Amino acid sequence: MITVTDLRKVYQQGKKEVVALDGVTLSVPKGSIHGIIGHSGAGKSTLVRCLTLLDRPTSGSVSIDGTELSSVRDSEIRAARRRIGMVFQHANLMDSRTAAGNVAHPLELVKTPKDRIRTRVAELLKLVGLEGFENAYPSQLSGGQRQRVGIARALASDPDVLLCDEPTSALDPATTDEILDLIQDLTQRLQLTVLIITHEMNVVKRVCDSVSLLSRGRIVEHGALRDVAGDLDSQLARALLPLPASEPLPGALERGPVLEILFSGDSAKEPVLTGVARRFDIDINVLAGSVETLDGQQFGHLRVQLAENADLDAVLAYLRERGISAKRAAPAAPAPDFADAAPPTSVPSTGEQGGNE
User: Fold this and answer.
1) CATH architecture of 2-229
2) Which is higher by pLDDT, 209 or 83?
3) Number of C-alpha atoms within 13 angstroms, CB side, residue 45?
């Protein structure tokens, strides 16, 4: 449904060129939810602006269901944008309009008949769980309710794609779960294709089918959640299955090798460490661990330390024969935190609303 091919965006700052997007390529199937994650300055907001045609890409293409958007004429931009519903971080509602008035606004812009607007607005507010709040102003609504109005407004034009730019970063955890549940439900009911731009790994874990890691304008990792979570060398796997920092335990195991082990599917339910201890007659200490269910599959991530006399190569071979990913690891390996801001790439503002990075 969404296909982005070799997308580049270069800004000119005096004599200097700033490359904000450097050959981004991705594909998101119809009816799925894809997460784009990365630090501040990675290019997330620029990607949003190019997808919504607020900025023209320098080169490359963006298409929705086979229709090329990046080459449309200026006179056709508004019609092209209607295929993409946009949900912003802070809802961006008009304070002077009621909930109904905010949802009606995009329909008024295309001169929809008033009777049709009233019917459609009522349908949309009911769809997002705000029946009875038609006459409430944004100041009378909670943060979650305002975001629901924003989602209803984004759906007013019957878009094919819902593009969500940090849709929950301004919300508390309980409200975040409610909004993510709503997005997931709407995706299934309306067969939407959803792209979520975020720096919160919990958002990806909760609702995404696939994920891309954007860094310095490039997609450096990409894949279905199950696939990226199963790769011990992946930054995304370490973020999806984080382990706290740990130190070797004192005593007999103090100088023994430290392993990272990744279980998935049926192997996550097997007593693998017991099998290793019995097979090689060694003690094993668990230094840290986590268990997550991602896209309906259970994953386990452990950091363990073996006795100093353990045959490391034999242990690794034993684990891999059983379909378990394992490698030697440093005693402490904290998970990447995409909420930590990297120095942003400075790009000029056009003054148009494109969401926040």
Assistant:
1) 3-Layer(aba) Sandwich (3.40)
2) 209
3) 18
